[in-house]
């Protein structure tokens, strides 16, 4: 019987053990969802013509490797209308320059007030992901609803930055902050 | 040689019971086998079996089974499609059923076990992504034969090993299929692992594999969503992702419970909690992962 047991055991050795995607893959999936949303926002929001240069800049403060990777994949495969995406990863609010979208991830939310000062007068869509940030100046704030990524929209914060928000985006928002 | 001893004992025994040879061709087949002339033995035994009176002879079926086993060894050993082997097994089982005294059952079963082991070995060598269907067919033959002899519903360890391996093959197919749309592979993998859990609910590999299957599917579903997918599609995919992550959760928890020092289920759980946005449990798993990694480093 011993011989048979050894033979039986080797069935699994032949096919190996596949492993679960690591938690990094989960992080990648969540980052991917955010970038899909961001790309969608470019279709539902109008930037004033003077802000349309040859590039469409997405700036992020302290982007995680997963987020940066997803944004770079977007830039490599898609455009915002006729404009090429350019991704900038700022290490501090001080580095922020002219950008069409500024994303402030949860870990950097303390930099929101400083970031708002830096983009003052520019046509920048500010996206955050911390509770209450849509009331503190961002136009779009990612939230979790029923274990899913969703977003709240503060249309007036977008309009303050000369952006025109489509009514369709309003309909897609989980929460609209007036 | 062991089998030849069995045949001699069997014939002596049956000869004593039935008053010896019932058919000249059967005698000739037996004599040929004793001389090692397996091809001539086949000619005689096939001729003998046309005699309807032998259809109820355990002796005749046993001799035919034995001869076909020898033919298999001579001509078809190592071949996955080996009709001589199938015939031998069938004949030997018929013999065992007719042999109501069951006095030679050990000898008959010993020969069947030898042939079944060859099914098993062939099934094992073919358990890969190209030949797995043949492997299934051969394993079923092995399984049927072993179950008939042991009267049990399943084969315990050997079933667990086989169906876990089969589940892995389907999982690999599923993982490599375009956009993971090949749901049939997911279903087949789940079915194979479920079968293992029916036999052994505490099997670590099957629990971990089902958890992994759902979790990986959840992740891939999202990462394969194109950037230009409309928001309602993203929302729908997220619903599916949450559903799959919740399906994975109990299996990975169980795997972790069974093998608390293994890193893989902890990493899977960590990923699920990240997907479900459960920061407290994510944190717990993160700490546990670090602890286990330290432990691993310490042991290396």
Q: Would you count the extended β strands of chain B for me?
A: 0
Name of the CATH class of chain A: Alpha Beta
In percent, how helical is the residue content of chain B? over 70%
Task: Give the mean pLDDT of chain A.
Answer: 89
Q: Do you know the CATH topology of chain A?
A: Rossmann fold
Q: What report would you give on this structure?
A:
The complex is a heterodimer of chains A (178) and B (300). Chain A has 178 residues and is of the alpha/beta class. Chain A has one domain (21-177): Response regulator (Rossmann fold, 3-Layer(aba) Sandwich). Chain A is 38% helix and 25% strand. In chain A, the strands form 2 sheets. In chain A, strands 3-4-2-5-6-7-8-10 form an 8-stranded mixed β-sheet. A two-stranded antiparallel ribbon of chain A has the order 1-9. Mean pLDDT of chain A is 89; it is low at 1-9. Chain B has 300 residues and is mainly alpha-helical. Chain B has 2 domains: 1-152, Serine Threonine Protein Phosphatase 5, Tetratricopeptide repeat (Alpha Horseshoe); 155-300, Tetratricopeptide repeat domain (Serine Threonine Protein Phosphatase 5, Tetratricopeptide repeat, Alpha Horseshoe), CATH 1.25.40.10. Chain B is built from 13 helices and no strands. Chain B has helices spanning 2-18, 24-35, 38-48, 58-76, 83-98, 105-125, 132-150, 157-176, 183-199, 204-223, 231-258, 263-275, 279-299. In chain B, helix 1 runs antiparallel to helix 6, helix 7 (132-150) packs antiparallel against helix 8 and helix 12 runs antiparallel to helix 13 (279-299). The longest helix of chain B is centred in the C-terminal third of the chain and has 28 residues, at 231-258. Chains A and B meet through helix 1, helix 2, helix 3 and strand 8 of A and helix 6, helix 8, helix 10, helix 11 and helix 12 of B.
